[in-house]
Amino acid sequence: MAIEVRIPTILRTYTGGERAVEAKGDTVAELIDDLESRHDGIQERLLENGEARRFVNIYVNDEDIRFTGGLQTALSDGDTVVILPAVAGGAR
Amino acid sequence: MLTIDRETHDAIVAHARRDHPDEACGVVAGPIGSDRPERFIPMLNAAMSPTFYEFDSGDLLKLYREMDDNDEEPVVIYHSHTSTEAYPSRTDVALAAEPGAHYVLVSTRDGAHEEGAPIDFRSFRIVDGEVTEEEVRVVERYTTGSTPDEKAEV
């Protein structure tokens, strides 16, 4: 099952500069495992203690997975996954 | 060095003043590789806070898709500090995820939110947790076809 994953600039060091890679999995969690198997270290940048990082956004077909079941969000062939680091900060 | 046209510079300042005492945030997009901030895109601060800013996740996706479609990148990422100096905080540094961008900070503290008051407008590179301040050059307009270094001085 091929799913296109769009990689943000800051994580392209893990994908040899590729802006998009293919991966597989029935859920986002499985997809991330699959990414890790070919792009060593990328998982650490996406997950923290087994949860999606607070300041990394993951979208499946334009929906933020926070609203669709998190890492258990189901995937099927032809879906598009976008990873975008949050743009955030502040004096706090 | 950040070279920015006056209209965009003034638009960033105006946005910071308008949203004071909350932090204001946004992006100035430009053609990939041009280092030229051309398209001013004020963003909603989803945190609506005087000490924190965050783009709404839906807005963020829309913004990046739009930039992708236009062959643009975020040349400038700006936000305001409303009671501290215009210098990246530890949070700013920890969350900075665009090593190619100019991080612009504006401070509206000490009455700088008032129209006409002097205001700090500073630019930084934030790469791998390291902050480097850079010169800001405000130009009246970008010279067509030139590289940023060849733009007309004010």
TrEMBL record, chain A:
Coiled coil: none
InterPro entries: Beta-grasp_dom_sf, MoaD_arc-typ, Mopterin_synth/thiamin_S_b, Sulfur_Carrier/Prot_Modifier, ThiS/MoaD-like
Originating organism: Aeromicrobium phragmitis
Source superkingdom: Bacteria
This protein's name: MoaD/ThiS family protein
Phylogenetic classification of the source organism: Bacteria, Bacillati, Actinomycetota, Actinomycetes, Propionibacteriales
Record SUPFAM superfamilies: MoaD/ThiS (SSF54285)
UniProtKB/TrEMBL annotation, chain B:
Reaction equations catalysed: [CysO sulfur-carrier protein]-Gly-NH-CH2-C(O)-S-L-Cys + H2O = [CysO sulfur-carrier protein]-C-terminal Gly-Gly + L-cysteine + H(+)
EC number: 3.13.1.6
SMART domains: JAB_MPN
Record CDD domains: MPN_like
Keywords tagged on the record: Amino-acid biosynthesis, Cysteine biosynthesis, Hydrolase, Metal-binding, Metalloprotease, Protease, Zinc
UniProt key word Hydrolase: yes
GO biological process: cysteine biosynthetic process; proteolysis
Enzyme class: hydrolase
Signal sequence interval, chain numbering: none
Pathway(s) annotated for this protein in UniProt: Amino-acid biosynthesis; L-cysteine biosynthesis
InterPro entries reported for this sequence: JAB_dom_prok, JAMM/MPN+_dom, MPN, VirAsm_ModProt
MPN domain ranges (all copies): 2-130
A single GO molecular function term of this UniProt record: metalloexopeptidase activity
Function: Protease that hydrolyzes the covalent CysO-cysteine adduct synthesized by CysM to release L-cysteine and regenerate CysO.
Family listed: Belongs to the peptidase M67A family.
Name of the protein in question: CysO-cysteine peptidase
